[in-house]
Design goal:
Distance between the termini: 26 Å
Number of strands: 15
Strand content: 25-35%
Radius of gyration: 20 Å
Helix content: 10-25%
Number of helices: 4
Number of domains: 1
Bound molecules: zinc ion
């Protein structure tokens, strides 16, 4: 997100003065978690520890995807969205984006591997279990499967990661121990945009 901020509230010569005094205020973001590096383009290249926002884009340039999930849904805030799948007593939640242009599959989230619980509280037994079959999300309005997607990731920062992990995990991996991941989607066919499609706390 970029915000234009005028340094003077009332320029005397509006157009010219405003042009000179406009400062492009950019918002730095936390680094992209490792597993999203080849498929998420951040809104801003500057890096700090603020939440990351970016667009899902395949290395081929494609931005339309079939979004795959384990098939179980629930209603949240009057909208049907994917939920954690319970399969034979185990819980799974993962999302894949299948590029409509080149067919490449991008794993956007698997809670057994990504985020705080997936990395820091990693469960070998659960993560070794085969992943459940996935199905393509269908737009609740038109039934189409092609979507564009935006991702937001938030974490607690490097210092917190180092102190919470007692230095047992390389400190440069702090972005991989994120605490929250959100996926917002838009139907490529009809433009329908669920309020929040996936909002996953990972700690
Ligand atoms: Zn592609
Ligand atoms: Zn649609």
């Amino acid at each position: 997100m970029k915000v234009f901020r005028a340094s003077a509230p009332f320029p005397r010569e509006p157009a010219a003065e405003l042009f000179r005094s406009l400062t492009l205020v950019t918002h730095a973001m936390m680094p992209i978690p490792t597993h999203l590096k080849d498929c998420v383009v951040p809104d801003d290249a500057a890096v700090d520890e603020s939440p990351l926002a970016g667009t899902v884009r395949c290395p081929c340039g494609g931005e339309r995807f079939d979004l795959l999930f384990p098939g179980q849904t629930h209603e949240w805030d009057k909208e049907v969205i994917p939920c954690t799948a319970e399969i034979e007593g185990r819980f799974f939640f993962l999302i894949r984006a299948l590029c409509k242009k080149c067919g490449k599959s991008h794993l956007l989230l698997d809670i057994d591997f990504h985020g705080w619980n997936g990395l820091v509280c990693h469960n070998e037994e659960q993560s070794a279990h085969p992943r459940p079959p996935l199905v393509a999300w269908k737009c609740v309005n038109c039934g189409g499967s092609a979507h564009t997607a935006r991702i937001e990731v938030a974490g607690e920062g490097k210092e917190d990661f180092i102190s919470e992990t007692d230095g047992e995990i390389d400190e440069d991996r702090w972005p991989d121990g994120f605490g929250w991941l959100t996926i917002n989607i838009k139907c490529a066919g009809c433009g329908h945009t669920p309020k929040t499609w996936v909002s996953c706390e990972t700690m």
